[in-house]
Amino acid sequence: MSSETWKCLWNIARRETYRIATKPMYLFCIIIAPIFSFVFFSTLMSKGLPTDMPAGVVDLDNTATTRNIIRNLDAFQHIDIVTRYSSVTEAREAMQRGEIYSFYYIPKGTTEEALASRQPKVSFYINYSYLIAGSLLYKDERTMSELASAAIGQATLLAKGATEEQAMAFLQPVVIETHALNNPWLNYSVYLCNTLFPGILMLLIFLTTIYTLGTELKENTAKEWMQMANNSIVTALSGKLFPQTIVFFVIAVFYNIYLYGYLHYPCNSGIFPMLMAGLLLVVSSQAFGIFLFGLFGNFRLALSAASLWGVISFSISGFTYPVMAMHPLLQGACVLFPLRHYFLIYVNQALNGYPIIYAWQSIVALLLFTLLPFFVLKKLRTAMLHFVYLP
Amino acid sequence: MNNKPFRHIIRQGLTGLIHICAHELKQVFKDQGVLIFFLLVPLAYPLIYAFIYTNEVVRNVPAAVVDMSNSSQSREFLRLVDASADVKIQSHCADMEEAKTLLKESKVYGIIYIPADFSKNLATGKQATISLYCDMSGMLYYKSLLLASTNASLTVNEKIQIERAGNTTERQDEITTAPIEYEDISLFNPQDGFASFLIPAVLILIIQQTLLLGIGMSAGTAREKNRFRDLIPLSRHYQGTLRVVMGKSSAYLLIYLIVAVYILCLVPHFFSLVQIARPWTLIAFVFPYLLSCIFFAMTCSVFIHHREACLMIYVFTSVPLLFISGISWPGAAIPEFWKIFSYLFPSTFGINGFVRINSMGATLNEVLPEYHALWLQTGVYFITTCLVYRYQVTLSRRHALERLHIFRLRMLAAKKQRKQTT
User: Fold this and answer.
1) Can you give the residue range of the structural domain that contains A80?
2) How many domains does one find in chain A?
3) Which pLDDT tens digit goes with each residue over A97-146?
4) Contact A351/B139, CB-based, under 8 Å?
5) DSSP letters of B140-164?
6) Shared domain check, B384 and B239
7) Touching check for A264 and chain B: CB below 8 Å?
8) Does residue B70 share a domain with residue B34?
9) Residue B229 pLDDT more than 80?
10) Is there a domain that residue B24 lies in?
11) For chain B, how many structural domains are there in total?
């Protein structure tokens, strides 16, 4: 590269830095919005796993045994028995008011029937309109019901002269030991923040990249900008976007340090691969932004498409609802979203600490995204030199 | 001015209001950008989302098995796991290393390990353990694996208990295995599905976000077209703040009454989501929601100075707003500070109320706090809209007066010059 090109690059980068520093919109999109989101999500889910979720009880039996069951239920990690209701209708209404997520129903005569070996039936009602709360409560209430049954069985066995060990072996011959690999606390914040942060950053990079290109057209400065680059679109783009790459990479480094250094979320690969993944995310998102702008050639349409892509990413990348459960069409479409690949790299690296070779497809995919602008360079050049802004 | 009869003012106001309303409607339908937010996004977005989550639940999560015991009991356990809807046994591995490789290649999301002493322990009347290793990249994998293996173990346990108890009748067997029976009942989302849980919240959020975007964009456009970059044009009809606010908001309301019917009634119907709302409750609830969203969006629109700025500012907020509403993250676990922060947005109350009305069959009585909050927001944001528009009206008047002043000065100067020359 000739020294002149370097000079052009330097001048454009300087001009761009000045633009970034003087326009409040950049301040908002590059600094305020990402940092706000990082702080927001991590403090919102600071509990990790929700505990003490409000639940109710309808105890029509009201004996020492049932009261004991309820006390034990209350002692579970996720359950907080807030109210006792006198009927199922009352409890259901409380659920519709959103006061409780679930209630445990013990019909009249339960204790008596249990003692007389007539097999009474208890039930628990769970509101799955709140899926996370519902699932957690289900787990605890089901365990409690098993335990209640076992307690009676144990009492019978002990009375017959069995030792405690024998009794347990009889009541629960097969035990399942669960190992939640690399997130043994079932921390939802670990599970969500690691993909939400880059997702938000990616969305903002899409928008900012398109915004920088679009404002050149809109403010009629595109020609001046192209002249600074001797009408070479490659020089113009690299000089313009390089300062942003640096700033966004700093933000990516920031969230990595925040997640793995400050919050101590699992990072079994060491932080370096995640920083590289962050860099890859920044560059591929910028490239995708350029591509969208080139493709549509219209500022507003490109922004709308970027928003669509960025927001859909959160759902289609499969970190909440797995890709394997989606329609086959969407399983194919999900490779078109950079966040999907970043998510897979994160799972491979930070979460599980596997050798990077197992994630090669995702890395290649992100690298392919960075090549996208080459398809639209010519169109972009024409646009910047000859087009006028269309609202 | 003040001597005009009251009736005249009212009549003038109403004409202005209707003029502004019609003008705004015309503007919306002329502007492709705004039209995308008001019509295309509300039409297409719910469909995309519902399509993503349409399968509701995860089925057949692939798992690897390391069966060191290889006994009839262990095989029975595995058969039961495989038979469940949640888990599919993808491969039988010779040892843990092989299974781990499959896990690394993401071919399986869990390993079921049955130790060599499994059947020996069972035969000697000791507790036998089965280890389950779950990949934690998705909570739903973990949930499926845990559920399937727990259910299988309960079934196996029951059989073993019956064998050991040596009862004479079947009824006795039942009582030995379960002295107390239990039953779990899923209310309001019978298949524990993802779509029925998330889509109602997304639908309500789409209404607020598209209003923010659309109103923001039309405000940005109005400013860009205006000679002084003001929000309000200087025209006879745009004299009173009240008629500007009412005129514009009624235009948006007209559009969104139709959009809301589509989003809140037809979309859940297309994808057969839970929909047990009482029509009048729904109408009574959605009306203040639309109003509060419109006034909220109009208040926020004063921050939008360019056409495209609305996208830059509003789009990313959708994700935090969905989380703060108390649907995806349980409301009981939201810190107090964020809870109070969430009261600023109509979507918080809208989502909570709508989910309860639509999915849980609540009546207006059960969502009274949300209903009142929405009316309160409508009132507050109406006042703030009036205040900011009032400010904008005076601003545009001042700009016009300044302009007039400059014009006059110029005229005077020109006259003087002419005099001097003559």
Assistant:
1) 53-171
2) 2
3) 889 999 999 999 888 888 888 888 999 999 888 888 888 888 888 888 88
4) no
5) HHHHHHHHHHHHHHHHHHHHHHHHH
6) yes
7) no
8) no
9) no
10) yes
11) 2
